[in-house]
Design a protein that fits this description.
It is built from five helices and no strands. It is an all-alpha fold. α2 runs antiparallel to α3, α2 packs parallel to α4 and α3 packs antiparallel against α4.
């Protein structure tokens, strides 16, 4: 019997399971797409909030007296976004420019602790993987060359 006939016979015998699997995958895909869409919209809102704070500073308008405070508000409103991390860094830079060095140091340390830990976590995992793979096998040495 050809393979196509065997596949059709299997499909006829297992029709209900064969139809539920693609439906489940479709529902899962819709849920993931919705989650990614919401996350993207939150990033756009955070970026717009940061732009609304930083554009008067870039234009040279002296209307805002304390840009660090405005940046910190954006960072507090959007703590888990890239724009929130950038706002925290810009707040630290503004505090440094204003001469508020202890406050600037505190903000730089908060930025480092909150954002760079995710990057260093990946590096640590990769580094620990390298260590374990090197422990699992003995080091290879090249045979001495005859001269």
């Amino acid at each position: 019997m050809p393979l196509s006939h065997k596949a059709w016979a299997w499909f006829e015998a297992n029709k209900q399971q064969a139809l539920w699997a693609p439906g489940g995958v479709l529902v899962l895909g819709v849920i993931v797409a919705f989650f990614l869409y919401r996350q993207n919209e939150a990033d756009v809102a955070a970026s717009e909030a940061l732009s609304s704070v930083s554009m008067p500073q870039l234009a040279g308008a002296g209307s805002r007296t304390d840009p660090a405070e405005a940046y910190l508000k954006v960072a507090a409103a959007y703590p888990n976004s890239r724009a929130g991390a950038r706002a925290m860094l810009l707040a630290a830079g503004s505090l440094f420019v204003e001469g508020k060095y202890p406050d600037a140091k505190t903000q730089f340390e908060r930025f480092t602790a909150s954002t760079l830990t995710a990057l260093s976590w990946g590096r640590r995992c990769w580094g620990s993987r390298l260590v374990w793979t090197r422990r699992a096998r003995p080091p290879t040495r090249l045979p001495p060359t005859k001269t």
